[in-house]
Write a structure and sequence with these properties.
A hairpin with a 4-residue loop joins strand 7 and strand 8. This protein has 24 helices and eleven strands. The two termini are 53 Å apart. The protein has a three-stranded antiparallel beta sheet with strand order 9-10-11. It is mainly alpha-helical. It has helices at residues 22-25, 51-56, 60-71, 86-98, 128-142, 148-162, 228-240, 246-256, 268-271, 319-326, 368-375, 377-388, 390-406, 441-452, 458-469, 499-519, 526-543, 567-571, 592-602, 607-620, 642-647, 679-686, 688-698, 703-718; strands spanning 261-262, 307-308, 329-333, 339-343, 352-353, 361-362, 577-578, 583-584, 652-656, 663-667, 673-677. Helix 4 packs across helix 6 and helix 16 (499-519) packs across helix 17. The structure holds heme B/C (HEB). Residues 81, 87-88, 90-91, 94, 216-217, 219, 235, 252-253, 255-257, 259-263, 302-303, 305, 369 line the site of heme B/C. Heme B/C is lined by residues 81, 87-88, 90-91, 94, 216-217, 219, 235, 252-253, 255-257, 259-263, 302-303, 305, 369.
Length: 726
């Protein structure tokens, strides 16, 4: 029955409908999907595949040769401008990496997200589908050993090198994702819209781009207004949100636009078809089909802007800086109708050889965002400095390009391959080398005894270890217990860490560390002592509840110095909410329960891990400011499953209090006030999926399981940044 292929009435979209999610019926319902991403089941290489190892075995020089050959092997189906795909590849690498934002560490080149929807279909990524398709033979040749994520960045590097630029290096090790990350890209429901600013024009939320579907800013100026100074503001804000300073901004834009051209031969509305995600099935993943003229080469239409910035668009030079400063730029329109700038000097019309038509010459162009570098006084100074010292320009671009394309890889321990630069950079959150002998298991046991003798409570011990380790975020692999940066600025002063109590606890742990290192041949780092403190605290808290447990521990952490810690860049890691400590502030991008899921996602936790951790931490009580919200036990400081049993017990009933976000639990029969709670406590009884997990840990048979699962999730958090173990 049904339709048969080959019949005239065949419709590939015939369908009766599709399953609707709970968010369709109840948009306000807490969505746990962020905690179920990237299941090993969606990975064709399986959970045991070690990409970094596979990449390390490649002969990188040969891979680079293959890419280089591809760059000048112009294909009929998408002819290369001036016979060289280099600039197109650089734009692809930059757009792949450039979606990174420092506020939550999301976006970036890792995962190869650029090849998946939605990013593959963002308007700003127009025609980068061609760049990836051109690289397919290289990808095909190396298969599992060369991820798309690495290949796209590497292609950018090889492109730069093939056009005469010396790069700072390349690190491989970005494994591919097989499904899109769930990322909050902004509130808008349509592309190229901007509903993300406050009344001062500042972006709300973690985003770095100023419009939905743009990598950073609008080339024609804010909302298309060709005002270079306003554009400069947007550029500074937007690039600042990926931790780029003025010098890096000028280097990146000037360096990038030294090469290649913009494509706006035709009016997009007349000629350009749908993006890949919406394109007809027979286009096989390619989008933006251009139905005007040849649809490619001289007729190519991408952004709608048209022209090259320099006279040698496939050779590295300082010509961008020279043109920017030497000419008087006047506003004009591209053939597609976009606002751009050309020199007022008519003689300039002969400067740039056409990309496809022999003998034809064009004027160089600038975007409003390029003119911004000339008009903004601070940017202009840097442009002039770079012009006066091309070597400085080269080095600044090389370093900024390396940072741009490696920012979301985390520490150097994750870098793989022959081209990894040896110079250590501050934004990599460097750690000193581990030296000397590691403490043994016996040593660890002795140290835990010393730690318990400090008189610090189980709550204080566990809270300190959590403050240290839970600063990690898997989105860009920054933060964590290694380095003991919890004792350094800015972390030591974060409100969520209760600075006074934290420094008191740390001082006592430091005493333990010093006393140990004085008499033992094997030194211990404070970072390790802090994690041991957590283990000691949990073991004691379980013991106080009548359970004997052992918390696994892996020594080998080191202590970073303040000088190794870039304070402004670390400031972005400060939690705006931490449900595990019942902490929430108005600076949060979302409501309390969504922020809980967001934090759990940044810690790489599953729904059961989040649940058991939060419940167990409530009974130990590591709450912010010593609050008792969610501490549903008469034995606080011990590790038990009372959070779950009492939350699910029908003897108690919950109601709102006068204080916003605070609820009260009373004994149903007597009306006696028992406990207080916040939304991140009660959600485990209210949300049907979370309640289902809470039931597991409240069940009569779940005692051992509760302890096992709690400890496993705890150790997972403690070791999130142990790339040396992985
Ligand atoms: Fe760029 C191109 C925009 C930055 C690199 N850029 C381009 C275009 C546009 C833009 C619109 C054209 C496209 C077509 O094709 O049509 N950019 C922009 C903006 C910005 C930028 C708005 C901010 C301000 N770039 C940048 C950077 C870089 C770059 C940073 C690197 C580094 N670009 C680039 C290149 C090119 C471009 C290379 C060319 C491409 C070709 O040739 O294809």
């Amino acid at each position: 029955a049904g339709l048969m292929f080959g019949t005239a009435s065949m419709s590939v979209s015939a369908s009766v409908g599709e399953a609707k999610s709970n968010q369709f019926w109840w948009p306000e319902q807490l969505n746990l999907a962020p905690l179920r991403q990237h299941s090993p089941e969606s990975n064709p290489y399986g959970a045991d595949f070690n990409y970094a190892k596979a990449f390390a075995k490649l002969d990188l020089a040969t891979v680079k040769k293959d890419i280089e050959t591809t760059l000048t092997d112009s294909q009929d189906w998408w002819p290369a401008d001036w016979g060289h795909y280099g600039p197109l590849m650089i734009r692809m690498a930059w757009h792949s990496a450039g979606v990174y934002r420092v506020a939550d560490g999301r976006g970036g080149a890792a995962g190869g997200q650029h090849r998946l929807a939605p990013l593959n279909s963002w308007p700003d990524n127009a025609n980068l589908d061609k760049a990836r398709r051109l690289l397919w033979p290289v990808k095909q040749k190396y298969g599992a050993s060369l991820s798309w994520a690495d290949l796209m960045v590497l292609a950018g590097n090889v492109a730069l090198e093939s056009m005469g630029f010396e790069t700072f290096g390349f690190a491989g090790g970005r494994s591919d994702d097989w499904e899109p990350d769930l990322v909050y890209w902004g509130p808008e429901k349509a592309f190229l819209k901007d509903k993300r600013r406050d009344k001062f024009g500042k972006l709300k939320g973690p985003m770095a781009a100023v419009e939905m579907g743009l990598i950073y800013v609008n080339p024609e100026g804010p909302h298309g207004k060709p005002d270079p100074l306003l554009a400069a503001n947007d550029i500074r804000m937007s690039f600042g949100r990926m931790a780029m300073n003025d010098e890096e901004i000028v280097a990146l834009i000037a360096g990038g636009h030294t090469l290649g051209k913009a494509h706006g031969a035709k009016k997009p509305s007349d000629c350009i078809g749908k993006e890949p995600a919406a394109a007809p099935i027979e286009q096989q993943g390619l989008g933006w089909k251009n139905s005007c003229g040849t649809g490619k080469g001289a007729d190519a239409t991408t952004s709608g802007l048209e022209g090259a910035w320099t006279v040698t668009p496939t050779r590295w030079s300082t010509n961008y800086l020279d043109n920017l400063m030497n000419f008087n730029w006047v506003l004009t329109k591209s053939p597609a109708g976009a606002k751009q700038w050309i020199p007022d000097n008519p003689a300039a019309a002969n400067l740039v050889p056409d990309a496809h038509i022999p003998g034809k010459r064009n004027a160089p162009i600038m975007f409003t965002t390029d003119i911004a570098l000339k008009e903004d006084p601070a940017f202009r100074k840097i442009v002039e400095r770079f012009r006066a010292d091309p070597k400085e320009f080269d080095l600044a671009f090389a370093k900024a390009w390396f940072k741009l394309t490696h920012r979301d890889m985390g520490p150097r321990a994750r870098y793989v391959g022959a081209d990894v630069p040896s110079e250590v950079l501050l934004w990599q959150d460097p750690l000193p080398e581990a030296t000397g002998k590691q403490i043994s298991e016996k040593d660890a046991a002795k140290l835990k005894k010393q730690i318990l003798k400090t008189g610090l409570t189980t709550s204080e011990l566990v809270r300190t270890a959590w403050a240290s380790a839970a600063s990690h975020r898997v989105t860009d692999m920054r933060g964590g217990a290694n380095g003991a940066r919890v004792r350094l600025e800015p972390q030591a002063s974060w409100a969520v860490n209760n600075p006074k109590a934290l420094s008191n606890a740390l001082a006592k742990l430091e005493d333990v560390q010093k006393a140990w290192n004085k008499k033992s041949r094997r030194d211990v780092s404070l970072a390790d002592v802090i994690v041991l403190a957590g283990a000691a605290g949990i073991e004691q808290a379980a013991k106080d509840a009548g359970m004997k447990v052992a918390v696994p521990f892996a020594a080998g952490r080191v202590d970073a110095s303040q000088a190794q810690t870039e304070v402004p860049s670390f400031a972005h890691l400060e939690p705006k909410a931490d449900a595990f400590r019942n902490y929430f502030t108005d600076a949060s991008y979302f409501g309390p329960t969504e922020m809980m899921v967001d934090k759990a996602n940044m810690l790489g936790l599953t729904v059961p891990e989040m649940t058991v951790l939060l419940g167990g931490l409530r009974s130990i009580n590591i709450n912010y400011d010593g609050s008792e919200h969610g501490v549903f036990t008469d034995k606080p400081g011990t590790l038990n499953n009372d959070f779950f049993t009492n939350l699910l017990d029908m003897r108690y009933t919950w109601s709102k209090t006068n204080q916003e976000g605070i609820y009260q639990g009373k004994e149903r029969a007597s009306g006696k006030a028992m406990w207080t709670a916040t939304p991140v406590d009660l959600i485990f009884g209210s949300n049907s999926e979370l309640r289902a997990i809470a039931e597991v840990y409240a069940s009569a048979d779940a005692k051992q399981k509760f302890y096992d699962d709690f400890i496993a999730a705890w150790v997972k958090v403690m070791q999130l940044d142990r790339f040396d173990l992985k």
